[in-house]
Design a protein that fits this description.
Shape: elongated
Distance between the termini: 21 Å
Oligomer: single chain
Number of strands: 20
Structural class: alpha/beta
């Protein structure tokens, strides 16, 4: 694993000590400005420190590397690349710089670093092709300022970087990736590792960011901590390692009534599995009691399979009344359907004052007949989010932050947008969960998440805490399962892991 005295890493399997603060590109530029102007740190000094951190990283990515190619653009990202190239040259490596763009446009500190490399005898030529002998490629083409789609010779160059078999280390952000959204702007470099400087960019962790970045290493370039005080991060990163601290050992005198009663509503004809998974996940996440309101045809079968669940056949909305009277929270949507039965049950649930988690068809019905409430948690995937906003799911993925914020503004409450880099938006903050893995791309995962969040709500956690803890717990359970492989992961594989993870005093 990549380690270092100033570096912090997050990779596919593990989160160590990456900072929790995430920023937009304009905020990071302001951090740079403060460091340079208010704390009198020369821009070239920051550039040299960035190059040194990246050089250390490439040696850990490919120990003993002897031949590298650095691809530089004309901005400060290219300046970082020239520092890396000079360090490689001085260490005895075979190194060359392939320059993209008009070199006469290189200016300021980047020009100073480029001239220093040339004076040291470094090889520079216009980008043509990457030598076969190259053992590692350094991407210093675009920085955080890229806003338009990559085209022409720039696109061809990024394609050539991706086509070469050597691993790629990206400087600050993989070229072609939008630093604020995680969207690929036509094409983006696929790096095995990314060295990010000064402030972590929010787009590294959601959308296509994790695909492009590989392992993420952060270096603060030794700037004073005071530079961060005046800028509020746009997003906060969360994970189970931190969220689990909210769980305390239970009192010896505890009884089931102390841990809430969750009512799970759903399971129209043919969809018994969805409501059962949600209910069983809730029970394994610590709810004291779990009731299931489902079709008569499903109630007995679910009770036989999991007798701890109190299943009730409910064919009319009126039959929900006594169950709602006993519950402390409700989760509705798994297998609910969008027919008359589902519509009637949802209408009755929304009349209650109980805290509610809405998922699946409950969200699809809400999209058709919108209303606003601060008493619910909405958990859409990109398709459901698109329906709630009246746009295509692809548009949601283009800017997941904006989509989640729009849903929260339109519908209220707390919004959890599923997908790579799950987002949680409340009225005044945006959070991003870095737990989870691609094995979760299978049916039923959302049903399990609904049960987990519902169980935490029932146990008395606040709306926001239940959502953040639930997202991280769900992802952490999947990461445990992924230790034996991501392909073939089933939603029910997560359920045994939930019990282990919600007992931090014994889960070591």
């Amino acid at each position: 694993m990549l380690t270092g005295p100033k570096c912090f890493i997050r990779n596919r399997q593990q989160t160590d000590t990456l900072p929790t603060a995430l920023y937009r590109a304009e905020q990071v530029r302001e951090l740079d400005r403060i460091a340079i102007q208010d704390f009198n740190i020369p821009g070239r000094t920051l550039m040299e420190r960035a190059g040194e951190a990246a050089f250390e990283l490439l040696n850990r990515v490919r120990p003993g590397v002897k031949d590298i190619t650095v691809v530089c653009g004309v901005g400060n990202n290219g300046g970082d690349g020239y520092v890396v190239a000079q360090l490689a040259l001085e260490s005895g490596m075979a190194c060359r710089v392939l320059q993209l763009g008009d070199p006469s446009k290189i200016s300021g500190d980047a020009l100073t670093c480029a001239e220093a490399y040339a004076e040291a005898g470094g090889e520079v030529r216009a980008f043509d092709q990457i030598q076969e002998s190259t053992e590692l490629v350094v991407d210093g083409v675009f920085g955080t300022g890229l806003e338009r789609e990559v085209e022409g010779s720039w696109r061809d160059a990024l394609a050539a970087i991706n086509a070469h078999p050597a691993p790629v280390v990206a400087l600050d952000i993989p070229s072609g990736l939008h630093s604020d959204t995680g969207q690929v702007l036509g094409i983006a470099v696929d790096a095995v590792a990314t060295a990010s400087f000064i402030g972590l960019k929010q787009g590294l962790f959601t959308g296509h960011g994790p695909d492009c970045c590989g392992s993420i290493v952060f270096d603060d370039l030794d700037v004073p901590s005071e530079i961060y005080k005046g800028i509020t991060p746009s997003v906060r990163r969360i994970d189970w390692a931190r969220e689990r601290t909210r769980l305390k050992p239970r009192k010896r005198s505890a009884h089931k009534g102390d841990f809430g009663h969750l009512l799970v509503v759903g399971g129209d004809h043919g969809y018994a599995g969805a409501v059962r998974m949600a209910a069983e996940a809730a029970a394994r996440s610590g709810a004291g009691l779990v009731s299931v309101a489902t079709r008569n045809a499903h109630a007995a079968a679910i009770s036989v399979a999991r007798p701890e669940l109190m299943c009730r056949g409910v064919e009319t909305a009126d039959a929900l009344a006594p169950l709602l009277a006993q519950a402390t929270a409700v989760a509705i949507g798994p297998g609910l359907g969008q027919g008359d039965w589902g519509q009637q049950l949802l209408g009755r649930v929304l009349e209650s004052t109980l805290p509610i988690v809405l998922d699946a068809d409950a969200l699809n019905l809400l999209a058709v007949d919108p209303e606003q409430s601060n008493n619910w948690i909405l958990t859409p995937h990109p398709g459901e989010a698109g329906r709630m906003l009246g746009i295509a799911s692809a548009q949601v993925q283009e800017d997941r932050f904006d989509a989640a914020q729009q849903i929260q503004q339109k519908f209220g409450g707390t919004v959890l947008l599923k997908g790579t880099g799950t987002l949680i938006v409340t009225g005044n903050q945006t959070l991003l969960c870095t737990d989870g893995n691609p094995g979760m791309a299978s049916g039923g995962m959302g049903d399990v998440l609904t049960g987990v969040i519902g169980a935490l709500l029932a146990q008395g956690f606040s709306q926001v805490d239940a959502t953040t803890m639930g997202a991280c717990l769900h992802g952490a359970a999947a990461d445990r399962v992924a230790l034996v492989g991501e392909r073939g992961m089933l939603a029910t594989d997560l359920i045994p892991q939930l019990r282990k993870l919600v007992n931090p005093e014994v889960d070591r």
